[in-house]
Every structure is written in structure tokens, then in C-alpha cells.
Amino acid sequence: MESQDCICIIPARGGSKRIKRKNLKEFCGKPILAYSIQNAKKSGIFSEIIVSSDDEEILSIARELGANTLKRPENLSDDTASTREVILHAIEQLSVQNAKPQNTKGLWVCCLYATAPLLDFNALKETYKLARQKAQDCYCFSAVEYDYSPYRAFNIIEGTNKMLFLEHFTKRSQDLEKVYHDAGQFYFARAEVWQNRQNIFEDSLSFLLPPSRVQDIDTLADWELAELKFKLLKKV
Q: Which of 5, 35, 39, 229 could lock 121 by a disulfide, CB 3.0 to 4.6 Å apart?
């Protein structure tokens, strides 16, 4: 598989409100950022791996791990900045560095999150292959099936349960339509798509991951569960 037209950008800002220094916190013996850089390398599909951060320590460790780095401006360094804005900044900087804006035309760009230690690098390879075949004008990203159908969801209003989808009450669980969500690990698209399409999810393609490879890491409880999954995967 050719790699000269695909780059990987790993957003990794320094601030984190719920887990302090999240992107550098040790996960099963390594900074969690290390796993994303290593998986990007192992996939063999990227001509360049870039860590985008506002934090000098993160940038320094990223370089030690073999990634290139990009210093992010302050306006893209708080928790209000979107992933797409960070990717667009990186694409813009690539264009400036090359001194030829057309150099990004046709370029494939993968956003790989820094907190994806459960990822199998083969998923990156397969998704890139799928994207090149069928996602020339849209995004292609990691997804996973809900482990329990959201059609059984309810609100609790003044202590009383109110079903959100009452029309599905009489259906068996196995008869409910399968529903999926973003796995929060990576997103592939051509540079032009990142620049012109704000909505990553609508009319896009997804590459399904097994639940064992997916874990949101927003709290310390999430972190501990992700480490348990990681250890179990290593035994398989």
C-alpha cells in the first residue's frame, strides 16, 4: 500500500480538566500518547506522523517517540477548540512549509487521537484502504455498535421513568435495529474534505471495531477499565 500521500495528525493538548496531564499519563507502563505514535508507525501507511500540541513537554516526548511536532496556537489550545479546527491548522501549516498550497491537493489526512491505546494498527490499514476505495468525498472513521440498545433508554423525571422510544417497548431486544456510535479513535479524509465538510458523521463511511478495542477515557474509572481491557487483549 502506498504511503506517500497520507499523513497522520495526533492532537494532544496539554490541558485536561477531568484527568490531569491525560495525554502523558502512564498507561500500562508508557505515556498513553506512545501507543498512538507506535500504532501509526506500525501501520506503514503514513509518510509523516505529526503531534499537534500547545505543550512543550508533550512536543518533546513526541519527538523522542519518533514523531514530528507542530506547535499549536493559543486559540486552538482550550477545550472549546474542535478537532476539525486543529486538523485544518495542521493542513494549513503543511501548505505554508511546502510554500506550495497545491501540495495538499489529494493529500489524505488521518486524525488519530492520543488516547487510543486499545487500537490495533491493522484497523488503520484497513480503514485507509476502505477510504481510498469508497470515501473520496467524505470521511471514514472508526465506529462501534452500542453494547445495549438505546431504544430501551428512558429519562427519570421527578422520580418516574419515562421511555424515550415507547413504540419499541413490545419488541424483543434482538429485533431492535442495530445502532452505532463514533469509537473516538481515528478519522480519515482527503485534505479537501477536511477543509470543506464540517459534519464528520453525516453521509460518511465507518469501519467497525469490536467492543474490546473501544473505551472512552474521560474519567479515572474509564482509565482503569481501559487498562483492564488492554491487559486482557495482551493475553489473547
A: 39
C-alpha grid cell for residue 128?
485507509
Number of Cα atoms under 13 Å in the Cβ half of residue 231 = 9
| This prediction's pTM | 0.91
**32-43 vs 121-134: helix crossing angle, rounded to 10:** 50
Closest among 33, 36, 63, 43 to 3, alpha carbons compared: 43
Phi/psi at 197 (nearest 5 deg)?
A: -120, 115
Q: Are the C-beta atoms of residues 50 and 153 closer than 8 Å to each other?
A: no
- 37-86 residue pLDDT tens: 999 999 999 999 999 999 999 999 999 999 999 999 888 877 777 999 99
Which stretches within the chain are classed as H helix?
Answer: 32-43, 56-64, 83-98, 121-134, 191-196, 220-235
Closest CA to 212 of 200, 221, 199, 225: 225
pLDDT, tens digit, 9 for 90 and up, residues 91-128: 999 865 654 444 677 899 999 999 999 999 999 999 99
Q: For residues 153 and 179, give the distance between their C-alpha atoms in angstroms, rounded to a whole number.
A: 13
